[in-house]
Amino acid sequence: MRRRDFLIRTGSTSLWLVSVSVLGGCEGAGGSSGRADDDDDAAPAGEVEFTVDSASGHVHAFRIPQATLDSPPAAGFRAFTSTDAGHEHFVNLSQADLTDIAASIAVVGTTSQNAGHSHGFSFA
After folding, report:
1. Where do the domains of the chain lie?
2. d(CA 13, CA 9)
3. Rounded distance, CA 115 to CA 117, Å?
4. d(C-alpha 121, C-alpha 19), whole Å
5. Which of the residues 27, 52, 74, 124 has an alpha carbon 20 to 30 A from that of 34?
6. Rounded Cα–Cα distance for residues 101 and 112 (Å)
């Protein structure tokens, strides 16, 4: 069983709290997809922005180029979140994850650990 499938099936409390108001506690989170609202900090054209759940009183944005979703690379996609509270996190997404996100199928996971914590996410 793939890690992603395991996380989805187990419904881990910490990860499913993420889906409450799209990563509960994420101010500016829009709906259950995890896509950030259109505001002054909206992703530039050609990028899709998501928000990770709140941890230690802060949140991070995560952006994926639309071209990456349109044609997911075999190696997947790895990038940093935005910086908040003086740090950032890595998010790793496989080609299958990117394909699911492009099809609006939720991908649930966890960021890298930094500053003594990690964040859950649910991107669709």
Report:
1. 3-123
2. 11
3. 6
4. 8
5. 74
6. 19
